[in-house]
Amino acid sequence: MQLSILSFQQAEHTPALDLRYLVTEAAHYVMALNFQEEFDLLYIDLNPNAEDKKGIAGLKFNRDAKKTMLPKIYDHLALIDISSVCAASIYKHGKEIIGMEKSNFPADAAMMVTEGCGEDYERFSKHLLPVSRYFLLRPLHTQWNTILKAFDFFLMDGVWDAVIFIAELISENKNMGIISHAHMLESLSESTCYPAFCTAREGFLLARYPLTKKSLEMNN
User: Which of 43, 160, 183, 201 lies at a CB distance of 3.0 to 4.6 Å from 178, suitable for a disulfide?
Assistant: First the structure.
């Protein structure tokens, strides 16, 4: 099985607030909602990135620096990081296609969209290193395991609908500079997809945690 990790191509010129970038930021936020007990979610910065980068400044959140950085916290951060790759892939190809093609990952990951997600992937790799070391696993195995689990989450009933809902909410408020966590969560909680989304979150967290060596192995 080929486990060579993703290669990133130079992104073509894309408007700073292209919907594709709003979708990836929405995915960061939707994944982060799983970990509200660990992180203080603040807002999504809607201002364009620095001049040489595409998209918007994105999700901002904090964690008390006095709290211990356990392996699960690094795993939380990695899952948030890699959400942009999952979202970009689903946005381009659709849920049904990715749902079928995901079974071929990582041997054939041609359907995965990595363009414009290089920095997220670098953070993803960095955050997973302490997890791999703690469980004495090969980093590439831990990475692919986590990528596949993140895809599983976004393909669950209600989750992708939540991503699209938040992306549209961002688009409606893109001239405001920021959109707060409180605003997004209140709006999402009133959406038709929210009950299914909450059920999906519960299932995802029960399946992922507590982290074990067995659950992080490539074939799980």
Answer: 43
